[in-house]
Design a protein that fits this description.
It contains nine helices and seven strands, in the order E-H-E-H-E-H-E-H-E-H-H-E-H-H-H-E. The chain is of the alpha/beta class and 251 residues long. The protein has one domain: Rossmann fold (3-Layer(aba) Sandwich), CATH 3.40.50.
Length: 251
């Protein structure tokens, strides 16, 4: 059986990918601060966990304390292919001189610390013989500097490096050397999501490149979430992926 754990499934790419994988016969557990969209909530193959992934104690209650045979994770223990997709993320717009302490800690907890920890938790929970795939939803911000996004750019760059480190560990760390493990850093492009709407509403004085995103919206150049979701699902179903791969939606 094929199992996927997705973060950020209340909307956007996370919700679209959850729908796509369920339609392809996967068992999916999703988690987000918000509730699952109605269509997903009614899908038998989908289980939703309402949890603030930036809240350490909430994460502990959700992943550490439940028994391994809990309904949300029972399928993981039987999975022949087990995938974790780190999709949940936030953007904080402020130039470096104006970054607030709480915003910095909260963003890094969700965008970086949680995905690294959750990858490790997932590896421990998945069967030793399963085909484990770790997917990081990346961004052009991982490799390009945007004024007003020091936290977001740094967090996406850090997440990408964490994936590279994991792929090296899979080859060199004894505990992982015999595991079937691959890592995919996947950039979906500029997608019509709630995050994009938030970016368009930011004061240009805080984010000088705001107009680029407004133009993409007004000229119809934003991809719908379903398009990269289908592309990513296809990649997850392909046999024998590279140990480490960087890919971008090209639609």
């Amino acid at each position: 059986m094929k199992f996927a754990l997705l973060t950020g499934t209340s909307r956007g790419i996370g919700a679209a990918l959850a729908r796509e994988l369920c339609a392809r016969g996967w068992t999916v557990t999703g988690c987000a601060r918000g509730a699952a969209p109605d269509e997903l909530a009614k899908t038998e193959a989908y289980t939703h966990l309402s949890v603030d992934l930036a809240d350490r104690e909430a994460v502990r209650r959700t992943f550490v304390e439940p028994a391994s045979d809990s309904p949300a994770f029972a399928a993981l223990g039987r999975a022949e292919r087990a995938v974790v997709v780190h999709n949940a993320a936030v953007v904080a717009t402020a130039a470096t001189h104006a970054v607030e302490l709480d915003a910095a800690y909260d963003l890094c907890a969700l965008n970086v610390a949680l995905p690294i920890w959750l990858s490790g938790w997932f590896l421990r929970a998945a069967p030793a013989e399963s085909d484990v795939r770790v997917v990081e939803i990346s961004s052009g911000a991982a490799t390009s500097a945007y004024p007003g996004w020091p936290l977001y750019c740094a967090s996406k760059a850090a997440l990408r490096m964490a994936g590279e480190v994991l792929s090296v560990e899979a080859a060199e760390v004894d505990a992982l050397r015999d595991r079937r493990l691959s890592v995919l850093s996947y950039a979906p492009g500029v997608v019509a999501t709630g995050m994009q709407a938030d970016i368009r509403g930011v004061d240009p004085a805080l984010f000088p490149r705001r107009e680029r995103f407004v133009e993409l919206h007004e000229t119809g150049k934003l991809a719908q979430p379903e398009a990269p979701a289908k592309d990513l699902a296809r990649r997850l179903e392909a046999p024998d992926p590279p140990a480490y791969e960087v890919a971008r939606y090209q639609g």
